[in-house]
Design a protein that fits this description.
One of its GO terms (cellular component) is plasma membrane. The chain folds into 2 domains: 39 residues; 147 residues, no CATH class. It has 6 helices and 4 strands, in the order ααββαβααβα. Helices cover 49% and strands 7% of the residues. With 198 residues, the protein is mainly alpha-helical.
């Protein structure tokens, strides 16, 4: 009886040690190396989708919108991230109800501001021009909003609108949502291309 008990104990200990070694090899070595290898194949995505200028200097990430403070660039969606917006450390939405008077006033004010800036009727301003995304950091605007800004950007830069439209086409990404305002345009990539113009 004692011999059987010792045999079962040895088998149990042996199975435990073998399981530990196999799981260590799979989960502690093979899995991390596989994930690291995939990250090296898709280097841009794994390293934060960093954007650099022609001198190799980092100018941002294609995944995070940036505030526009100079003329001649496309404006992103409004941002509620942080006190002044576009704060990647404070990613958030407004959290205001659609019935909120504050939200309605903010949208009306923003609509009037965009209409005046772009020289259009307030009714022509698309929704994404006056509402922030859930994160407040979405780098995409609709094709409609990009088209609305094209005449101003071309005028401020002193270039042809056709050239600006070609740059928009290059920065346009696949539309997964079927948005009525058109496919998404990565405004960060678009503004980077504009900043590289001589």
């Amino acid at each position: 009886m004692a011999r059987t008990s010792n045999s079962n104990g040895f088998r149990l200990a042996s199975t435990t040690v073998r399981s530990f070694l196999v799981l260590t090899l799979i989960l502690g070595i093979a899995y991390p190396l596989t994930v690291f290898g995939i990250g090296r194949i898709m280097l841009a995505q794994a390293d934060g989708s960093i954007i650099t200028n022609s001198q190799g200097k980092t100018t941002g990430s294609s995944l995070l919108a940036q505030e526009v403070t100079k003329p001649g660039f496309f404006y992103p969606r409004p941002s509620a991230a942080g006190d002044n917006g576009f704060d990647a450390m404070s990613s958030s939405a407004t959290n205001l109800s659609p019935y909120s008077k504050d939200l309605r006033k903010a949208i009306a004010d923003k609509r009037a501001e965009v209409a005046a800036r772009e020289g259009v009727s307030p009714g022509d301003v698309p929704v994404d021009a006056v509402t922030s995304s859930g994160s407040g950091l979405d780098p995409h605007i609709s094709s409609r909003y990009a088209t609305l800004q094209t005449p101003r950007v071309a005028r401020e830069r002193g270039i042809d609108q056709h050239q600006v439209r070609q740059m928009i086409a290059t920065a346009t990404e696949t539309n997964f949502t079927g948005n009525a305002d058109g496919a998404p345009v990565n405004v960060v990539k678009l503004n980077q291309a504009l900043s590289e113009l001589k």
